Structure formats: C-alpha cells, structure tokens
Amino acid sequence: MMYQGFLVLLFCALSVLSQQIVSDPGVFGPSIELVHLYNDEFPSGIAVSASGRKFTNYPSNLDPNNTKYNVAELTSYDTEMPYPNAEINTPPGGQINYTTGSPVGANNQNYFINVQSVVIDAMDRLWILDAGRPSTLSGSGTLSSHGGVKLIGIDLSTNTVFTTIIFPATVAYPDSNFNDVRFDLRPSITASGQGVAYITDSSTEGRNGIVIVDLGTSLSWRHLDNAPQVHAERQSVPFIWGEAVYSIAGYGLPITRVLYGADGADGITLSADGETLYWTAVGSRYLYSVPTALLRDNSPTSELLAQASIVSHSVIGISDGLETDSNGLVYTGNFEQNAINIFDPASGMTRVFVRDPRIGWTDAMFIATDGYVYFTENQLWRTPSHFPGTERRVRPFALFRAKLPDNGTKVQLL
Ligand SMILES: *[C@@H]1O[C@H](CO)[C@@H](O)[C@H](O)[C@H]1NC(C)=O
Ligand SMILES: *[C@@H]1O[C@H](CO)[C@@H](O)[C@H](O)[C@H]1NC(C)=O
Ligand SMILES: *[C@@H]1O[C@H](CO)[C@@H](O)[C@H](O)[C@H]1NC(C)=O
C-alpha cells in the first residue's frame, strides 16, 4: 500500500510538471509587415502617397544629430534621400542661431529647422510641420524664432513648395512645440473654401493647446489653451518593454515623472466625417475629443464653448500618433501592451487591433489608400532624455504596416 501510494504521488507530480501553464501569447491580430529599416537618422513621422511614395521626418529636437536632413523620401527598403532636395534641408548657418544671447531655432522661412510631422492630405499633397526648435548638440532645447515655425505644402508631382504658412507670435509662442497636424479640405467648412488644418501644441514647457489654420487665408488661432485635458496627467509613469519610463529634460537635469516634464496634446486625428477632433497627451492614458465646428469658430465666446464641449472617451492606453480609417475607427498607440488599439466611436469601446513584441513606442501612424496602416517604431524612450540618461537605442529603427479590418482605407475629406 505504501509503495502504491508513492507511485500515485509520483504520477501526480509528473503530470503537473508536464502540463503547459497558460501564458501570454505575445501576438494578436493581423501579422505586421516590415516595410523599411532606418539605419541613418532617427525617424519620427510617416506619410504614404496614393502611388505608394513614402516620406519620413527626423526631428532635431529629439536627436541633435538629425542635421543632414529633416525630411526624406524612402527610396528603397533601407535607403533615404533628402526631400524635396538637400538644400532646403540644410539652412545656411545651421538649424540653430548662436548669435543671440542663448541659442534659438533659426528664423529661416525657406528651410527646414526642426520638422515634427509629415502628412499627405486628401489631394495627395505633402505637408511639413516645422516646430522650429532644434536641440543643441549637448541636448538642451531651444526656443523658436518667428519664421522658423511653419506649415509647408509640397506638390508631389513637381516636388516643389506651393505654400508656406507662417504663424504669428500670438499663435506660435517661442516655447510652443507644434507636434502633429490633420487636414480637412471640405470647401463648405470655411468662407475661403480651401479647408483647415488642426495642430497640437505639445510645448515642453506646458503651454499646450490646439491651433487651427485656415488654409485659404493662412490665418491661424488657438483653442483649448491650458485646458486640463490638453495637459499630461500629473505624476504619470508609462511602462514600456518592462521598464518604467521617467523623463530627464536635459543632460544633468532632474528626473521627472511625466514624459518631457509637461508633455501635453500630441497625437491628433479627425473623425471620418471631419466633425470631431480627437487627441491624446503622451503623458496621459485618456482619449479626448471636441466638435471641430467649435474649433473653427474664432468669435469672442468660442473658447468658452470649445472648453465646455470637451469629451473624455476614457482610458485607451499611452499613445503618440493617432489615425482614423474610412470605417470611422480611431487607431491609437498602446505602448504598454506592445499594441495598437482601435477606439470605435460607434460603441465607445476600445479593443486591441494588433499586438507584437516588436511594437513599443509607435511614434506615428499613417493610413494609406492601399488599406494599410503604416507605423514607425523608434525606441524614443531609450534616448538619453529618459532615465537612466544614456543612449540605449539600437539601430535599425523600423517602419511596419498592418492591413486594416473590413476594407478600411484612407479618409478623404474633400
Ligand atoms: C551624436 O553623435 C555623436 C558622434 O557619433 C555621439 O557621440 C553622440 O552621442 C550622438 N548624440 C546623440 C544624442 O545621439
Ligand atoms: C539670428 O539672430 C539675429 C539676432 O536676433 C537675427 O538678426 C538673425 O536674423 C537671426 N538669424 C537666423 C538665421 O535666425
Ligand atoms: C471588402 O471588399 C470585398 C471585395 O470588394 C467584398 O467582397 C467584401 O464584402 C468587403 N467587406 C466588407 C466588410 O466591406
């Protein structure tokens, strides 16, 4: 009996050991395809034209070594060419003006200083958003100069600039950081009939808000300045790839909690009908929106109405760039889960779209006419401006794409 009891115990122990313990599968949704490897400069945004041409920007505030080009066309699987040419990417005298008391971004209207975003609109035109605030080689930020902050339109058929919109000092403050931009070209929404652009100001110093530009008149104005919802959440700490992410605003400066000390409104996207603007702050897990009609309104009480109409769609995860497809689904980053999420405005629910261990800091997303969402993975939290303050990025950086559900494709607000 003793011997039989021993055998039963041994059998039980072995069967437990041989059983599979259920664990996180690590992947979910459609497989992601590698589209491009960035071996040279540190990338941020991505835009894909109707014919499949691809463009990326390389902000010089996030990496002061991004001095050879601010914008490039991806010419093969792993090569890039300054776009639209090398000259416009290399301002005479450099990106930074050292003749002033403390260094400031150069004021050149005709050159790229520090491009934060590239977007292709519904007319297949490339727009370049220049925040005008490069970092010095020692990693310190600069303030912008009037003329450095601008929105440049490029005709992709001729590869030439067709417009440059400069922002007045009442709209682009020296410590503004114009971060991302979305376009609505419907003639009916403005008197000038050329559409509008919406821009997030993710000012490191915390003067966050949304900027609106009438593309017909080049007039611009601000809304939602310093509303709590355009700011990061106090004391938030994101977790990426098992690491707590703290910020170090500059070399030798103290460790802070929220990313960039005060990093507010950053990712931005329009609803498929253009009537709602969504945004997130990188230092927040919440998704917010406001009716775009209230942003386009610049009458005396319009700011009261805009601030009173902000909607919280609750927690969606930590996200940088956002996108929307033709089915109305809003794509958001979810850094902490190696994922990209979908927020469905029709149900108010968030779900995971795709998960993959290669996904971490999804800096930008772009939905192209081929029915794919393209997204950059640039390891931004491993730059020296995050704890422990050392360089931990490993090249190459990557551009991926994933097929959209239910024949989703690019939204065309024309
Ligand atoms: C810039 O490049 C230099 C030379 O390769 C390197 O020593 C420095 O760490 C780089 N800086 C950043 C912020 O990557
Ligand atoms: C540099 O600053 C000086 C002094 O403000 C100004 O006159 C000059 O135009 C600036 N140059 C550039 C390229 O920003
Ligand atoms: C997607 O497109 C295919 C081919 O046109 C069509 O057969 C299918 O019904 C579409 N699916 C949805 C969900 O619209």
From TrEMBL:
The keyword Transferase does not apply. InterPro entries: 6-blade_b-propeller_TolB-like, MRJP/yellow-related. Keywords: Secreted, Signal. It is found in: Secreted. The keyword Transferase does not apply. Residues 1-18 form the signal peptide. Its main location: secreted. Belongs to the major royal jelly protein family. PANTHER family: PROTEIN YELLOW-LIKE PROTEIN, PROTEIN YELLOW-RELATED. This is Major royal jelly protein.
